[in-house]
Amino acid sequence: MDSSHVFINLNNVKVAFPFTPYKVQQDYMSKVIEAISGKHNAILESPTGTGKTLSLLCASLAWQQAQTSGTCMIYYTSRTHLQLSQAAKEMKRTAYARVPSVVIGSRAQMCLNDEVNKQPPGLINRSCRNAIAKNGCAYYTNYEQKIETMDQNIVHDIEDLHQFGRSHQCCPYYASKKLADSKASIVFMPYNYLLDTSIGKSTQLKLENSVIIFDEAHNIEGSLSDAASGSFKDSCLDAIQESCGKLPEKIHDALNREMHGLTRFGYDPESKKKKSAVVDEFAPKKDGKKKPEKEPKVNLIEELAEKLTSDKIRKISVCVEMLKNSAKKHMDIDKTCGIDKVYTVLEQASIHYTNSSEVLTTLESMISFWSVAGVMNVNQVSKYVAALSNLSHVISLLYPEECISVIKMSNHKKKLVKSYKAHLRGIYKDDSPVEDGTLIDWELNVWCLNPAIGLDRVIDSRCINGPRSLIITSGTLTPRTEVITALGRKFKICEGFEHVINENQLKVVLIGESPKNYVLKAIHKNTAKDQTLYYKELGETLLPTIKLLPYGTLVFFSSYTLMNRTMERWRLSKLWTLLTQTSQVFIESQSKEAFESDLAAYKRRIDSAGNNERAIFFGVCRGKLSEGVNLEGNHCRAVVIIGLPYPSAKDPKVEANIEYSKTSQDRQYWYEHQMRRALNQTIGRVIRSKNDYGMLILCDQRFIERRMSVSDWVRSYYPYELTPIIKAESVIKDFFIMHGIDIKQTSSISNLSSQPGAFEFDASAPKRPAPPKAIISAGPKSFLNGADTRPRSINNKVQSLGSLMLSSSPLIRNRPTTSVSPSAPSDASERLIVMAAAYTVDKDTLDKYRRKSVAEPPASKKPKTTADIFESVFSQPTTQASSNGSSAPPPLSAPDTQVRFAPDLEAAYSDGSGGRKSAPVDRLTVAKFRYALSHHHQSLLGRFSRHVAVAVAVVVSRFAHDDCSLGRASNRNRKRREKRREKNTTQTKLTGFGPKESLEATGLVVVIIGRLER
């Protein structure tokens, strides 16, 4: 092993790690080793970005290499080939890179045959088999001998297999399967190789006493249920009947070609004569002559011809015809029913447990023939293969091959009756409604509602005693107890782990109302096809916010329906024009090829973008963008989620799952569980590594009640209240400024509709509009004349002032470092603003300075006022004359490091460990602001005035809420506040600030900014 690795001892196993592991990684590896050593099953949830995959591989391989009695196979499964390739690359970084391992993939991923690769994705498997049957693939020929020359003690990922295959003319697909069967100690493979028993038959997996790892297993329950479910359409049955009609003739033609081939390659006439007897079996019969005797088969075509006798093909045709009639007779269109009705349908079609094995064998032989015959149009053959496979799968679910007795079949049927539902879905012309639509097809669905059955099919059909350990792991498994219940097995180890990021790497914002106070709820009555208001208000809320976000932004809707309707309405409005002026927009396609192309274009846009360029990718929770895609760094600086991603309550399968739950509480819990899993999986897109950072914006009023729905690690960032959209702007800007991204806004939200390109980065920010002249020319007193000073009015006034301040607070560039404003504010104005800023200091700090002033009386006999005490909290610079006699700004000394903010700001800016985040609103900022104001330092003043103004707005808003409770407090609470004020114990009394005075200070900041801009 490489000496550069770090070695740690965990549960008596020496683990080599590429670097010193974080504590969360050590804890995770310890649990993995504990599970495997003790032959336990484990559920482990570790957030994305914690090095879960690397920890999982190092721990499991360390345990495997420490064993002295034989090799315990490790099967590492994940959802996509991309995830498997990433895992294999992680393994190459470890000290276990020489452990024999291989990645198993599909033909589409691995095939090197140019003729096969020309076929559409759905026909590649068939084309491959056809080429092999004709001895037309040079890569397949002698591949077993060729792989003996490989270095087998390395990690063979797909790229390595491709490279070896090209240089040695060896098939990567079959080479990987051979290595997995005989050479590898760890095998990487997609879920479906394990869950789909039909695929598993072609791969000799040694699951007995093995370690099976399901990584990215956030949807393991759904995957298991889907693998144990099936369906077929009426049109599928028509295709099977058509196939049965053409099959004898096609077999006859294929055998004739084979016979001519024998003669060409030197076979004697006697052999040809014997072989012609097999061909005659499928020739048109004019009498009842006895069939010829069979001889050993020469190739696959002849072997299949022996199995597919005319009598067997005829029986399948009759069964299918009866099945068509029986399904419509015993089942109602668009109705869900018990699985017993499907048994009735099959039995009416003469398919039951005594002959099901024969029926399945014939169907599989038909599939094999059409896959290798190569005598028809490929699209037509593909249709036959798909139809035969669908029917075969459904029959195998209801009549598994192990049910060979009446008792076994009876027990199996009872289990399915409890855990399965059937549904006959009508397919209508132009997707028209059921009431007036024309039925053009139907689909019989057999749904498994119990994931434990799917897991049993995987394990019990391939093991006698079962695997050594099952490890289920993902960044999103909350609630983990639900996974244990669903899988129906004992999991002795069930752990969740914290994230490795710091508090300032993620910011969560909840937005519940539009700028016009419309409550945003993505519920059916608001998002129905004939509704427009929700989409309009959502756009006016979301688009200005999105245009503030730098680089790449992912926006997720709760469903494809909601996304498509939103895009349709936005395109018809001015909002879409505003969005596309500064951002390139991508929309998730349901086509795999189109999505991959768009994703690559999105990444290129971000990688080539300057500081003033953006890209936005609209996607769907549970869609391609939300799962299996790793967008790190600038590729995803923010995630926006619109609506709660509940599954459609009107979906018959969802209804069946809800009904399957035993109690009403369980039914609601299942529905919530589906939402939580999709929500947390989508949230996981925002942080992808230890050093990553980003913003999460949840846009729906209901999110305020869903704190417990998010994963454990997210809750520490989750706010307790909604953020008004007018404040969301400053929150976004402050967060990215903290990370070195200076975003300047060019218009307030209220003016967005009339300001195209409203938000820009600093590099291309146009000149900001000046504040209204009426406010510039009027003093703060006149600004307040006639103002309603009731609490709610004060709160609204502060918000409107905040909007104005945010829209008129530029970074003043290229100005002299010292200049005197022609209309400089008075000393009283200066003190008022300083007091407003100092209001953010908590009461304990104020008391400390008051006691200090008493103990150390000033030189003058006049005692210090409260305002004087506040000013002493901050540094007090003095004017110094320069050497040439001119007045220059003195150096700025640091403020008292012991000052603490008031509780709300303390919580907002504390890092939880006694330190502080690098936030723009801090003591030093306030001190710099006072310094700049007192010396009319315009460049500094312009830089810090906005932050102080925001602090004032926060203070006044809190004052209106805490001290006046927006008019909702009871008389008893009002009396308590009056009593506190009499004792001079509140901050409001100590600072001399009431609602009017606080508002006056806020208005004064606006006046000063306006004067500086003149």
Molecular structure report:
The protein is α/β, with parallel strands linked by helices. Among the domains are: 230-286 and 293-454, no CATH class; 504-752, Rossmann fold (3-Layer(aba) Sandwich), CATH 3.40.50.300; 790-875 and 892-1013, no CATH class. The chain has 43 helices and 24 strands. The strands form six sheets. It has an eight-stranded parallel sheet with strand order 6-5-7-4-8-13-3-14, sandwiched between helices. Strands 15-20-19-16-18-17 form a six-stranded parallel sheet, with helices on both faces. Helix 36 (843-855) packs across helix 37 (866-873).
Descriptive keywords:
single chain, 1014 residues, alpha/beta, Rossmann fold, 8-stranded parallel β-sheet, 6-stranded parallel β-sheet, 43 helices, 24 strands, disordered C terminus
End-to-end CA span: 70 Å
Mean pLDDT: 75
CATH class of one domain: Alpha Beta
Helix-strand category: alpha/beta
The count of β-strands is 24
Q: Based on the structure given, which CATH architecture of one domain is correct?
A: 3-Layer(aba) Sandwich
The rounded Rg comes to 36 Å
Low-confidence stretches: 263-282, 284-298, 745-842, 873-926, 928-947, 952-971, 983-1001, 1005-1014
Q: What is the CATH fold-level name of one domain?
A: Rossmann fold
The amount of helix comes to: 40-55%
- For the largest sheet, list the strands in their spatial order: 6-5-7-4-8-13-3-14
> In DSSP terms, counting alpha (H) and pi (I) runs of 4 or more, how many helices?
43
CATH superfamily of one domain: P-loop containing nucleotide triphosphate hydrolases
- Biggest sheet: strands, sense, closure? 8 strands, parallel
